[in-house]
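Q: How would the structure tokens look for this protein?
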Amino acid sequence: MSGIKKQRGLKRYYKNLASKIDFDRKTWLDFENTETWERNWHIHFDYEGHGNNSFKKRKPHLDKLFRHFDLLVDKTKKLKKGFHLYTVLLDFDSHSDALFLHTPNQNNSQFPFKISDLKLDTTLTNGQLNDYINNLEGFEKLYGKGGEAFCLIYKKNVGQPF
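A: Here is the predicted structure in token form.
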């Protein structure tokens, strides 16, 4: 044996990425009672980091993330308080890609976010991710560099502006 363990069930895994909606199975994002929310609520879609070494494997996770982004846009119309709805994508760390919904709450005073040092010009070196982001329609993009280059993505007129 070569010592390489073959992962089973990946075909079903990727099929489910394309069709399942995570909000249908989860109860922790209660739009009727936002007081139960944790600070800066977020959800990751590539828990195992499948897309870290292959954009072909990362793209289905990104597609699901932005599908859920649009679902949250509809759900946030019910909110009676201010919020930020955004996603952060890191250059090469698919595991850390996340969709965020941030509201004022008792656990966090950083609302609204005041973000500085972000640019309109890309800081990403991952060409395939950059192309994917550039092909997104209806989204605003801000770029920065921390430990790794990243892109913050949001929609105008959805929540409070950055």
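Helices lie at 10-19, 22-25, 55-75, 127-134.

The radius of gyration is 17 Å.

Upvote if useful.
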